[in-house]
Amino acid sequence: MVAVALFLVACRSSSEAASDALSVSTTPSPSTGPARPIQLTVRDSGAGGVTVEATWLGIQEDGGLAFKVRFDTHSVDLSTFDVVENVLLRDGAGRELRASAWRDERRASHHRAGTVKFPALPPGSDRSRVTLVVRNLAGIAERALTFEFQR
């Protein structure tokens, strides 16, 4: 019984360590901005037959920002949409940052999901809100998913 208890404690410690290594820091600091938005997930209206949903994943260790993004449709082929080229981040003052990375978690023609990352907001950025902008998807020039932050 003691051996089982020690095994469980050891497993818990190693899984907590692994979880800590993958965790995203959401502690506010002057250089990274607010800790979390008022609404963690934002969805658009589904214009052009495609719904876009974004979930705030937080501020990364390097100060960059990450979002989980889902695209869903039953009428458009999403597999060829270039996320890095067509998704950007806009701060509250209108300054734009290009995506630095996209990692597909699901890449199908009608359902696509993954993580998009952006570099840290530059000094002086308006951190009261950020807008994930999706351009050129299903005939829609621009969609905006805005995250407002508590101050």
What labels describe this entry?
alpha+beta; 17% helix; disordered N terminus; Immunoglobulin-like; 151 residues; single chain; four-stranded antiparallel beta sheet; globular; 9 strands
Task: Describe the overall structure.
This protein has helices at residues 2-22, 83-86; strands spanning 41-43, 50-59, 65-73, 87-91, 96-98, 101-107, 111-118, 129-137, 140-148. It has 151 residues and is an alpha+beta fold. The protein has a single domain (24-148), classed as Immunoglobulin-like, CATH 2.60.40.
Radius of gyration: 18 Å
The figure for the number of domains is 1
Order of helices and strands: HEEEHEEEEEE
C-alpha termini separation: 50 Å
The CATH architecture designation is: Sandwich
Mean pLDDT: 80
The top-level CATH class is Mainly Beta
- The CATH topology turns out to be Immunoglobulin-like
Sheet with the most strands, sense and barrel status: 5 strands, antiparallel
**Strand segment tally:** 9
Q: Which outline best applies?
A: globular
Structural class: alpha+beta
- Uncertain stretches: 1-34
Number of alpha- plus pi-helical segments: 2
Give the percentage of residues in beta strands: 35-45%
Helix share bin: 10-25%
Strand order across the biggest sheet? 1-2-3-7-6
